[in-house]
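Moderator note: this is an archived Q&A kept for reference. The question asked for a predicted structure of one protein chain; the sequence and the answer are reproduced below.
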Amino acid sequence: MIQTPKSLFALAVSAAMIALPVAAQERVFVGIATGGTGGTYYPLGGMLAQLISNTAELEGKRISATAETGNASVANAGLLAKSEIETAFIAADILDAAYKGVNQFDGNAAPNLRALGSLYPETVQLVARAGANIGSFADIKGKSVSSGSPGSGQWQLLGDLLEAHGMAREDVTEDYSSFAQSADKIKDGNLDASLITAGLPTASITELANGHDIVVVPLSGDEIAKLQEVQPYYASATLPAGSYRGVDADVETLAVRAIWATHEDLDEDIAYAMVKALYENTETLSQVHVMGSQISLETALESISIPLHPGAERYYREKGLIE
């Protein structure tokens, strides 16, 4: 496994969670695959790992959870499919595709994937340099745009958006940078736009907007409605005015839920303990990121289309969410 950066532990500690003394116990190690440092998976994963380590109850044992940086949804689905990590954050549409073996996973279905719970809505943000003259999605024709790693969720979404608008990948100069890298390229004038799907506010965009003029391009209209017909996981959403410096009006866009997932071999009692720790301590997560406040037991089953892990299912039955 990748070692968790020290900065992630510092971030978790800064959230002011107080750990109760724990007697010497056998420890069970659990990893949480997140994403890059410029997105939302990373800080929330660090806080969740700390929360589980401090509050999860497992008879006779102590769960030690660690959050690990990664390449987000598609890569995380691959790690779970091979049982190379215990849990991961994955966008709902990517999780469904991986389970069924479609789109990026054509011929590589992962029927061993299981859901632990729904987290928060990730907002699709097409961010452009103010001087790039991009006011609508159609304006990216002939421009340079980052879509993340080939095969990633952003990469798939860009292709879908281009198709819905009657364009192809050849109509843009595609860049494959991470969120943070694409923000740096926009700062330097070496990139016109970047497609970023993450919780609000997104750290890399906040940093970019604080020092440079940006435009968050709306994603709405007939073309988007056509996309939603073939990709129902994408719901209409609004990026509120004031989300970033210079964004003075609401921006209509899309959103997809992030799911906490695992594989079928994870011990049932461990899964139960971790899900219970999350949904009974959600207020703690809001201390590290505003999207933490949108994680709740009431929405724990939203956008989940694959089987629940038995440990998670047991918890939701106890809470009356399923019969």
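Archived answer notes: Residues 317 and 323 are 6 Å apart (CA to CA).
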